[in-house]
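PT: before anyone asks, these are the final sequences, not the draft ones from last week. 563 residues across everything. Please model them as a single complex and drop the result in this thread when it's through.
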Amino acid sequence: MLLHYFPGTLLPAAFATCVLACTPLYAQAQAPVQAANAAPDTAAGPTWKLSGFGTLGVVHSNSHEADFSSSILRASGAGVSGSWSPNVDSRLGAQLDVSQGAWSGVLQVISEQRLDHSYQPRIEWANIKYQMTPDLAVRVGRIALPVFLGAESRKVGYTIPWVRTPVEVYGALPISSSDGVDATWRWSTGAVRHATQVFSGSTDQDLGYGLQIDANNILGLSHSIDYGPLTVRLSAARARLNTDIAADLFAGLRMFGPRGQMLAERYAIVDKRVSMISAGASYDPGAWFVTAETGRTRTDSLLGGGTSVYVGAGWRQGAFTPYVGYAQIRADVATSDPGLQLEGLPAPVAAGAAQINGALNTLLATIPIQTTWSTGVRWDVASDLALKLQFEQVRPRGGSRGTLINSTPAFRSDRTVNVTSIALDFVF
Amino acid sequence: MLVLCTLCFVATSASAELVVIVSSRNPNPVLNAEQVSAIFLGQTGRFPDGAAAVAIDQGLGAAQRDLFYRQLTGKSPALLKAHWSKMVFTGRGQPPREAASDAAVRRMVADNPSMIGYIERAALDPSVRPVLVLQ
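LR: through. Structure below.
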């Protein structure tokens, strides 16, 4: 198995042992029957299947004041932490499927860099599914939030033409999974195939360093339409968000009278309503393809809110797929705030208030405003293996640091960062 | 029946003409390319008449398999792998069961009215019925 060839730093021993323990079960693996209650099943017991995916990627960025990253939940990226970084895109995922008749279960674990520099694996999917009819399935457990065309499979590089899903669009989600229930109903009107999914749950995401982000009362709907080469997806979800990020800042704000209280109430991420809505379409007749997506997120808090859009197109020339793309995210809220009033305060108190204003505005500047132009080529080297090379020009705007992380005090917005990425994607 | 008659008039180059087959006990008369494509890509689990449909593939790398998907969906083996990877890793389904040869597909399909497969036209026999001819 490919897992044996990975260096120790990428896979902690515990995870490797866990996966290796499941390997004997793979010996009796056969592809489970697709429609559960159709054929008389000759297999007596459950069917097991182990599969997986991964990306080996390296990224270069010419910025010396910030890191380019694919997600804000990472410790480092390419740029100030080192002009070349393997941490942006490298990941390994393993999935265990078990099925018997109309019942099936899935467990998917992914290892990628986290906020605390470790590659400790995280459970992405863990659910039990019951196929009530060939068209209606119900799941209980953890699922990835189905917003955007590729949100649920955004970590499987092999399924994406470009190196990564656009950070402006896919990085805008404060939460990415839901622990609860969901139901999917497939139906059709002539040649138009529909799938309607409703989901409900909650999530506790550990961010590292003792921080956590919790979402409760998650409720959402996702609808996909397939008509020949056209695929459309519309999604909407809402939740109540809670996190102790910047708890010290809000405690400090609250000590400054009614204005401080008001600022704390406005920005604290305590029982705040978050809503996401998105629409995406992909037209793929085979020789070429176009994909476009747009999304809007609101959090009424420090995490801000924005509208993002992405357009990508490519064409297929034998085993090569060159492509171009444009992505943009624009904040719909103010990314700075006058903060506490300093007049009339005694000098040492005013200094403290100024520091709090500075901290608040530093955090607000992390609400992204950014545009990216990208181009690249994907080469399907061998079956189950794809090599990609991508160039992009990333431009944070409007005083924001965009989607870049680890910005130093010398960081200036409105400067283009050139990013080069090489990625090797595989599935097994 | 009309499909079989038109078969006689089609000038076939070599033997590589594929037919999509169901059991002779399956009441579905004819399927169009879109309906067959939806079953084999996991977008539906039913025949047009509502009965459950189970797709049977030929083995990975088989000439019939590559030709079938290229003619029916326009997808190369790599694109098909990407499609099924997306389905598998989002829990939406698994790729179809595989059978080793035309004869194996025919045997499985003949025994089970909910199965649907594809074989070379030359391998047809009365135990199965063609529902679509691929050009």
